[in-house]
C-alpha cells in the first residue's frame, strides 16, 4: 500500500511541474488535429477510390478480352495441316 501512495504522491509532484497549454493554445491544437485528420482521411479515401476504380477497370478489360478471344476461337475454323511428319 505504501508503494501505491508513494507512486501517487510522486505523480502529483511531477504533474505540478508540467507546463499546461493555455485555453487558446489547446483550442488551436485541437482544430489543427481535426483538420489534419480530415485531410489524411480525404487522401486515404481518394487513394482507395482510385485504386478500386482501377482494379475494376482492369478486371472488366480482361473479361472483355477473354470473351473476344473465345468468340474468335469459335468462329474461325481450325487450320488445315498438310504434310506433317511425326518422327
Which short descriptors sum up this protein?
mainly alpha; 87 residues; 2 helices
Order of helices and strands: HH
**Structural class category:** mainly alpha
Helix percent band: over 70%
Task: Estimate what percentage of residues fall within beta strands.
Answer: under 5%
Radius of gyration: 35 Å
Q: What is the straight-line distance between the termini?
A: 95 Å
Shape: elongated
Query: Roughly what is the average pLDDT, rounded to an integer?
Result: 90
DSSP strand count: 0
Largest sheet: number of strands, sense, barrel closure: none
Number of helices: 2
Report on the structure:
This protein is mainly alpha-helical and 87 residues long. Helices cover 79% and strands 0% of the residues. It has a domain at 20-74. The protein starts with a helix and ends in a 12-residue tail after the last helix.
Question: What is the compact description of this entry?
Answer:
The protein is an all-alpha fold.
List the helices and strands and how they pair.
Layout lengths: L1 H16 L5 H53 L12
